[in-house]
């Protein structure tokens, strides 16, 4: 019984998903290419492409780098 409680997700738990469109929108608003954003954020170009196409979500470190590079909060990027 105890083990099943550990493995079961709580009913109050909700997942938060990154909205890749918000990254692309803010990037374009700032007049940056994907490559320029990658360089400014110190992230690989492939990561920016994956985030914008919602193939992957940034980890906490990458999210902070995107916040700083785009001048927005993580909450904004999460939609």
Description:
This protein has 79 residues and is mainly α. 59% of the residues lie in helices and 0% in strands. The chain contains six helices and no strands. Helix 3 (34-41) crosses helix 4.
Give short descriptive properties of this protein.
single chain; 79 residues; mainly alpha; 6 helices; 0% strand
Most strands sheet: none
Distance between the termini: 38 Å
Order of helices and strands: HHHHHH
Query: How many DSSP-defined strands?
Result: 0
Sheet-strand content, in percent, reads: under 5%
Low-confidence stretches: 1-7, 9-15
What does the radius of gyration come to?
16 Å
Overall geometry comes to globular
Q: Classify the helix fraction into a percent range.
A: 55-70%
- The whole-number mean of residue pLDDT values reads 83
Structural class: mainly alpha
Q: Can you count the helices? A: 6
How is this structure best summarized?
This protein has 79 residues and is mostly helical.
Write the topology of this structure.
Layout: H1 2-7, H2 20-29, H3 34-41, H4 45-52, H5 60-70, H6 74-77
